[in-house]
Amino acid sequence: MAEKKQNVLLLIDSNALIHRFFHALPPFTAPDGSPTNAIYGLSNTLLKIITEQKPDYIAASLDTPEPTFRDKEYAEYKAKRAPTSDELIPQLKKAASVYDVFGVRAFAIPGFEADDLIGSFVEMFKNEADLKIVILSGDRDVLQLVEGEKVVGQLFKTGITETVIYDEKAVIEKFGLKPKQLPDYKGFVGDASDNIKGIAGVGPKTAEILLKEFPTIEEVYENIAIITPKIAKKIEGKKEEAIFSRRLATIRRDAPVGVSNLESLKVPALDKVKLKTFFQSLGFKSLIEKLEK
Known about the structure:
By secondary structure, this protein is an alpha/beta fold. The model has no long low-confidence stretch (mean pLDDT 94). Helix 2 runs parallel beside helix 4 (89-102). Helices cover 44% and strands 12% of the residues.
């Protein structure tokens, strides 16, 4: 008897990918002079994944310019990031049209980050029979969503071509902690890229020691009396700071994505005529060649 095929749902962290492509690729422009390096990277990746990995379902998640719940709770959230480049802004806006020409549904919800939409899709479909969920991103934050071999992260390793797959075993090997503990880890150590403070003086090694012994921030503080005095002194009286930092670092799973069934995310056959016209308008000759092959 033939083994039943396992379907694949690919969840794309669009903004993380576009930022990565923008910084990894040299600047180049469309015939009209508009910057296109990030759009080229996104188009190339979609074409490669759809034709080679052949996922059955795809949903792309985008950020919106409106403040998120994190911004409202913590005004300094991401405050230290450099302003978005003038060459990147129009490419972020154009991403939706890239997904449209590929026939892929893209989602953006004010008040939520792209990660939160991905977390919501994971929560919605992780118990679907014969389905594997793959999260394509350039950001390790999504690894907190990994579960066994059912939900995995596909992260770019170098440049814009090589990726590495993280299942739960790989996350544990890399970080020494389970995926679901990664927000607790950031609760202690913070995250400089998002300006999440954590607890001053608590570094990766200390956080790992604590969370290997006691799986959550709450359990660490419940057992503070038996923790090494030197470490206990660093964290004493700072439980609320750690919990607040964890909250900021935790991907939400309740965004109103407006999808009721998996079939609405099914990947259609590529419209080669539509894609060729789109690539020609941007001067993507190499992608036209790939498409025609």
